[in-house]
Amino acid sequence: MRILQSSGIPIYQQIADQLREDIVQGRLKAGEELPSIRGLAKELKISVITTMKAYEQLQSEGYVTAMQGKGFYVNAQDTDMIREQNVRKVEAALANAITAAGYAGMQEEELIDTLRMLIRLKKTD
Amino acid sequence: MENNYTYAIEAKNLVKKYKGFELNIPDFEIPKGFTTALIGENGAGKTTLLNMLAGLKLDYKGNIRFFDTNDAADETVKERIGYTGPGCYFLPQWTIRQVGEISELLFDGFDKTRYEEICGELGITKEKLGGKGKKVSDLSDGNRMKLMIAGVLARETQLLIMDEPASPLDPLMRDELCNRIRAYIEQGNGDKTVLCSTHNIADMENVTDYAIIMEHGKIVEEGFVEDLKEKYILIKGDVQDADKIQEYLYDCNKSSYGFEGMILSENLDKLAGTDISTETPTLSQISVAVMRANTDLKLKR
Question: Considering only Cβ atoms within 10 Å of each terminal Cβ, which end of chain A, N or C, has fewer?
C-alpha cells in the first residue's frame, strides 16, 4: 500500500480505495481479517483515527464487517455489485479517453478503431 | 467518529487559580487507545493541566479519574502512568546507568535491560560520548528528553503524559518519537493511551488522533482530528470577495493578492455564487485558526 501525503486525496480515502481494490480484485478474500487498525497505522506512519475512518468507510460500503473487540473482516462480495462498479470504472476511463481524443482532434471512427486495435493487442498478449 | 471507546482520563470541574490566571475545565476526557495532542499558546494552561493530571500539582479543585477506576486513591494507578516534562527530574550528578538503577527501585514495572537498549537505540549512550557513565548534567536538552523518553518506555504503563516531548528534539528524533508513540499505541491494542502537549503540530500531525486546543485556561476546541477536518474548511479567494465573505469566516488573512480563511463547513453554503477554492485543512491550520480566533494578542491580519 502506498500513501501520498500531498496528493489532495485524503489519506483515509487512499487507504479505503486501496483496500477496496484488493477486495474487489480478490486479493483479500471473504472471511479474511484486515490488518489491525493500530498495526496498520504504525506500518503506514499515520494516525489511528485516520485508519479507523478508512475502515469505517469500507464498513459503510458493505465490504467489511467489524467484529466487536476483534477486528474487521472481509464480507462475501456481491458479484453483481462488483460488476456494476467495474462497469462504472470503464465508463469513467472511456470518458477520459473521449476528452483526450477531443484535444487531439480525433474523430469518432478513429477513436473506435483505436479501441478495437488495443483490444486486439491485449488478446495477443 | 467511532463511538465505542472509553476514557483513559475523565475529569470534572477542574479549577486551579494563580494570580492573573485561572484554569477552568468543567469536563475533560481523554479517549483510551489513542494519542491526544494538547495544543495552545504559551501560558494557555497546558503544563498546569498536565501537572495536575500527572500528580505533580495537587492543590487544585475537581476530580480526576483514570482508567475507569472509582477509587482515586488507588496506588496502582500511578504505577500505570508515565510522565516526561520540560524540566529534568533526574539529579544532575546521576549517570545514565544510575538513572536506570534508581528507576528500577522506584517502579515495579521497570525493565532495566529495555531501558539501556532504548538509550542505545536513541543514541544517548554512544561510547565515544561517555557511554552509560555519562552524567545527566552533561547531556544536551535533546538527550535529556531522550533519556526521559527511554525511562518511561522501559516501564510497563498504560498511559503516557508528555509535556512538550518534541520541542528539544531534532527532526530525525521527532520522527522517531512519533514512531515510538505509534508502536506504544499498537502494543496496547486499544489499552494504551498517550497525551502530549506540543507546539510542533506539523511534526506530530500523523500521530495525533484527538486534539484539544486550550486558551486562557479553557478548552476552546476539541475532537478527533478526522472530525475537525470535516468541521472546518480552508477557503481561498480573490481580494475583491474578501469583504463580502468575511462575516462568515472563522478566521481570515488578507493580502494584496487574495485572501485565505477558515470557515465552518455548516456555513459553506452561504458562500454560494462566489469564486472560491476549498481545501481540507491540516491540523496545524485548524489549530492556528482556532488560536487566532481566541487569542488576546493583537496580531496584524
Answer: C
Residues with Cβ within 8 Å of residue B210, at least 6 apart in sequence: A49, B30, B31, B34, B35, B36, B37, B222, B223, B224, B225
What phi, psi does B97 have (nearest 5°)?
-60, -45
**Is B210–A49 a contact, with Cβ atoms under 8 angstroms apart?**
yes
pTM equals 0.85
Q: What does residue B69 show for φ and ψ, rounded to 5 degrees?
A: -85, 135
Separation of alpha carbons B37 and B290, rounded Å: 15
Q: Can you read off the three cell numbers belonging to residue A77?
A: 462480495
Q: What is the pLDDT of residues B247-297, one digit of tens each?
A: 888 888 888 888 888 999 998 888 877 888 999 999 999 999 999 888 877
Q: What is the ipTM of this complex?
A: 0.87
Which chain B residue has the Cα nearest residue A38?
B186
Picking from A37, A44, A45, A49 by the largest number of B CB atoms within 10 A of its own CB, the best residue to mutate is A49
> Residue B82: helix, strand or coil by DSSP?
strand
Domains of chain B are: 7-222 (3.40.50.300), 228-294 (3.30.70)
Contact B132, B94 (CB under 8 A): no
